[in-house]
Design brief:
It contains five helices and five strands. By secondary structure, the chain is of the alpha+beta class. The chain folds into two domains: about 55 residues; about 55 residues, no CATH class. The strands form two sheets. It has a three-stranded antiparallel beta sheet. It has a two-stranded parallel sheet with strand order 4-5.
Length: about 150
């Protein structure tokens, strides 16, 4: 497996996993890949820094931590029923939640403890923080899309 940072012609970037470099090329050339943000089909690999192992990390196993483990990705034609459904879900989530941005973890805890009014919120949390919220009994659902304000 190989992870690539991909970039579309409008400048959006995102990561995805492929069986091999050839698999990426074949899928791209067949028009079966699209931007995870805008659905554009003109994609290429972005410049990526190699993973450099230090003397200390050389003794550690070369396995991604749970927080950086690969996530599933989806490629579907932008006019497909599935793509339309995902866009509809995104619009509904944006309509029915308050964007608290980087204050998500703090605000979720405040709502849970009754220090803030109960409401549906969305925002940013790194995987470790999100896991801690779940361990505390706070319901958190990762969203399968990027905030539209950050997508451009």
């Amino acid at each position: 497996m190989i992870r690539y940072t991909l970039k579309c012609s409008t400048g959006h970037s995102f990561e995805s996993w492929f069986a091999s470099s050839t698999a990426f090329d074949d899928l791209r050339d067949a028009g079966r890949l699209e931007c995870a943000v805008c659905g554009g089909r003109s994609l290429d690999r972005a410049l990526m820094a190699p993973r450099v192992r230090t003397a200390r990390s050389a003794t550690e196993p070369d396995v991604p931590a749970a927080d950086t483990a690969p996530r599933q990705s989806l490629s579907a034609p932008s006019d497909s029923k599935l793509a339309r459904l995902i866009r509809a879900v995104r619009k509904q989530v944006e309509r029915e939640t308050e964007d608290v941005g980087r204050n998500f973890v703090h605000e979720a805890r405040a709502i849970h403890t009754g220090q803030a009014p109960e409401r549906a919120i969305r925002g940013e949390a790194d995987p470790r923080e999100a896991r801690r919220l779940v361990e505390e009994g706070i319901s958190v659902i990762p969203l399968p899309f990027m905030d539209s304000k950050k997508a451009n």
